[in-house]
Amino acid sequence: MLVSRAPAVRLLWVKRAEANPFLGGFHSFPGGRVSREDGPTEEEALETTMMRCAVRETFEETGMLVGLQGQAPPSETQRTLREQLLNGNVEFWPSMEGLGLSLDRAALLAAGRWITPPFSRMRFNTMFCVAEIQDPRPPDVWPGELESGEWIDPREALRLWDEDRVALAMPALHAIQVIAAAAAQGAGGSALERLAAGLAGIPEANGVPSRHVILHPGIVMVPLRTETLLPATHTNAVVVGDRDLVVIDPGTADPSDLAPLFEVVDAALKHGASVKAILLTHRHKDHLLGAELLRGRWKAPVWGHPSISDRVRLDRELTGGERIELQGPHPRRLLAVPTPGHSKSHVAFFEERSRTLIAGDLVSTLGTVVINPPDGNMGEYMRSLERVRELGAQALLPGHGPPSRGVDHLIEALIEHRRQRESRILRALEGGPMTEETLREEVYKDTPGAAAELAARTLEAHLEKLIEEGKVRKEGGRVILSTP
Predict the structure, then answer these.
(1) Domain 419-481 carries which CATH code?
(2) How far is residue 217's CA from residue 242's CA, in Å, rounded to a whole number?
(3) Cα separation of 50 and 111, whole Å?
(4) How many whole angstroms separate alpha carbon 13 and alpha carbon 18?
(5) What is the three-state SS of 301-315?
(6) What CA–CA distances, in Å, run from 311 to 27, 255, 256, 293, 374?
(7) Parallel/antiparallel/unpaired status of strands 347-351 and 356-364
């Protein structure tokens, strides 16, 4: 991360493109994945390798040369080199050596090591470095993985986060909070060293994986290990509110697996909060198994769709359209949105002030969700996606996977995926009637690793929709394209 202290403390942050599958639309710092040219990845050499990675990635993403010894080349040379790097025609470090430049370790201070949380499929082992820029110039972000970049007062960055206008991953939020506190203390000869120590001053910055994700003030995602379908291993519980709280989708009754959720809620209770209700998005076990245990622990009622009352006793039925007001320093208002399709009982929750959609199993950022008849219905699912698209959500917390700010892109991609699958079905049937097994093999040629049983159930859901629309019919154990 780059910091400037003249004339006032500012930091450089970048916004990730909304189409990025990992933390799309979030603000972060320049950086990326270690490349072979950065050096060896054995532990004894890893710090130097990560510093070289930070220098290279900063140049690739922002056009800024930092952390180097030697005379920087003219700006025209830098731009040409950057174009060649991004086109894959040259490598960074051999190019730097050819220009007489080398890594200046003294210009980069190690500022913490963040390790992948257990609930994330995107693996990382990241060292944060901090460097001071004496004469900051605007970053030159070329659209792609990133959308924009700018220098900003850290206190202004926190204000934007506090007002729900930006989203920050935990490492970035912690770093900005520390830099803002350092700015309030004023500059000094050892200010950068103190800053680096502060950035590394929490367990999560020392290789202890975090167990929750703060999306906005009073909106916390807590992934819980559950008995769910791969590739997911966790179900996202969500805590909304910072005085009046609701807990959404506690998907396990195992106290050890619920421990991260206990930590978040109990910390709020110590500061005067109370649990107003436990909300359930739908009837599947990996979203509701902990409801009774939490009812007893926090003396909180359980609210959900009436059709799940055979699995958990409901104190209030939610069918859609209800609003739940949560008072506190950051008031929140949840709208229950009927979203059948994955399940007839499915209800999503839209936090109207931050425009955050708590999507349950309407959306997974790990892939597509299973539509399994008769509880699942593809036609209803597609209509539910269209319904939530009209809400204008700016952030999304899925039932499984990381959060996203690229909501429109994500939902459009899900709709397009289902449309393409239907097109494959119709094209396959143009050659004549087919059994469902043969049709499945043809339609899912593009996903050879797909589980045959799940593919068969999803195909059945698509066929139900196409039959309802009069596009295909079943006769004598075969699927036939209907004549217009």
Answers:
(1) 1.10.10.10
(2) 8
(3) 12
(4) 15
(5) CEEECHHHCCCCCCC
(6) 40, 19, 22, 14, 18
(7) antiparallel
C-alpha 230/C-alpha 235 separation (Å) is 11
The owner of tokens 């198994």 is 289
Q: Is-contact 319 332, C-beta < 8 A? A: no
Buried b (16+ CB within 10 A) or exposed e, 25-52: bbbbbbbeebbeebbeeeeeebbebbbb
pLDDT tier for residue 7 given thresholds of 50, 70 and 90: confident
Residue 456: count other Cβ atoms within 10 Å of its Cβ: 16
Whether 332 shows a pLDDT value over 90: the answer reads yes
d(CA 139, CA 64): 7
Question: Of 391, 357, 344, which is closest to residue 236 (Cα–Cα)?
Answer: 357
pTM for the predicted model, two decimal places: 0.86
Level-2 CATH architecture, domain 213-405 = 4-Layer Sandwich (3.60)
- Torsion sign (Cα): 34, 39, 42, 45: negative
Task: Name, in order, each residue with C-beta under 8 angstroms of 103's C-beta and a sequence gap of 6 or more.
Answer: 48, 51, 52, 55, 67, 68, 69
Q: Which two tokens stand for residue 34?
A: 């270690």
For residue 189, the model assigns a pLDDT of: 46
Q: Domain coordinates of the chain in residue numbers?
A: 2-205, 213-405, 419-481
463: left (phi over 0), alpha (psi -120 to 50) or beta: alpha
- Judged on CB neighbours under 10 Å (0-12, 13-18, 19+), 272 is exposed
CATH no. of 2-205: 3.90.79.10
- CB 260 within 8 Å of CB 222: yes
Identify whether the C-beta of residue 28 lies closer than 8 Å to the C-beta of residue 11. Answer: no
Summarize pLDDT for 90-135 with one digit per residue, the tens.
999 999 999 999 999 999 988 888 887 766 666 667 888 899 888 8
Amino acid identity of residue 142, one-letter, is W
What is the spatial distance between Cα 69 and Cα 51, in angstroms, rounded to a whole number? 14
Residue 158 confidence (pLDDT): 95
State how far the alpha carbon of 198 is from the alpha carbons of 43, 152, 294, in Å.
23, 20, 36
Long-range contacts of 89-97 (CB under 8 A, 24+ apart): 91/37, 92/35, 92/37, 92/56, 92/59, 92/60, 93/37, 93/38, 93/52, 93/56, 94/37, 96/68
SS3 annotation, 165-206: CCCECHHHHHHHHHHHHHHHHCCCCCHHHHHHHHHCCCHHHE
